Amino acid sequence: MPEPLIGARLERFALPNGLRVVLAPDPAVPVAAVAVLYDVGIRSEPPGRTGFAHLFEHLMFQGSAKVPKLAHARYVQTSGGSFNGSTHLDYTVYHETLPGNALERGLFLEADRMRGPRITEANLRNQVDVVAEEINTNVTNRAYGGFPWLHLPPLLFDSFANTHDGYGSQVDLESATVAEAEAFFERYYAPANAVLCVAGGIDVGETVELVTRHFGDVPARAVPVRPDFAEPPLTGPRRGESHDRLAPLPAFAAGWRVPDPIGELDAYLAHHLLADLLAGGEPARLVRRLVTDENLVTDVSAGLGLMGDALAVRGPGAFVVSGFLPPGGDVDKVVRVVDEELARIAADGPDEDELTRLRTMARSRLLRELDPLIGRAKLLGVFEQQRGDAGLLAGLATRYASITADEIAAAAAALCGRHRALAEILPGRA
């Protein structure tokens, strides 16, 4: 049976222009969430244009065919709604949450910018400045800024697609042109390269009519063939360090390659539970040993993915263990403890109490992600885009619950058998 938060009924269809649509009615809520996901992300950026996918996300808020600059925000907020957008490794998403009676307004706004954003020299230069300030705020002038998602990939992977800085270099951003932005839109923002998901208190028949009315006449365009972003295996361990003048403590992030999240989903999800076994709360093994018993770190975490997006990637991903050390801490000793715990799990697996806790944590995390209506709409859109069927999300909690102790042990054994990348942050200037 589908999870209650996903809903017992999903409607999936495609318009003649190729736009895929998912409707997830939930009569228990009086609001509607609209999410449009485009099949373009950080991995899609070409050399010399680092940060372009994120920059273009900003441009999509600068007005569209019939909507002047700043009007999109005004129309949503005066309806009592909220909006945002975000750029990820494998997709870019734009979304609104609105009262149910303002659904058509949200659909109109998204359809209008799918027809064409207002790409002007003034808008481009303005948003380059906005992104530069965002980099200053989130990376340059923040302790541990961008760690580890900007530091670990160049060690763990080899290709430009998987290693470059998704925020972008200032040189690349400032040299971007209007012509390049227009070409980016034509290439990646076609209806057939997008998924529209509408969730919440909607009438399915009425919503189908509204979607067709507003999106049906967006001109169809060819879509690019998605490249293969796969990486060859690491031939040895890798290590790198950087200095952070604002960091008060040393930090580390150890990363391993993980199974294909699309083709090897069960093995991939077993790594997700392995992360909780290592560092998911006070009873977790690394928390007990590294923090409580041996005082080797002040904090430790483990997880799947570099950007907190374990369930929303389809390219090469990472299993990451990271933490902060006290002054003078020994990162090599910390990593040895991590290796010892992985080897112990590979040999014995989790016990029954641990397995029950891990399954409960996985289900709770999934339900927390699906509880906000916009979170539900986005994840349904991701599953439709990346796996070809949003309905697969309905069985995910059951899939987590079926993972065995042996599968978690196998995940730990796989990490023991793979080469590792280690990124360090050292306080102070080089």
TrEMBL record:
It comes from the Bacteria. One of its GO terms (molecular function) is metallopeptidase activity. Residues 20-140 form the Peptidase M16 N-terminal domain. Residues 176-360 form the Peptidase M16 C-terminal domain. One of its GO terms (biological process) is proteolysis. Keywords: Hydrolase, Metalloprotease, Protease, Zinc. InterPro entries: Metalloenz_LuxS/M16, Pept_M16_N, Peptidase_M16, Peptidase_M16_C. Belongs to the peptidase M16 family. This is Peptidase M16. It comes from Amycolatopsis vastitatis.
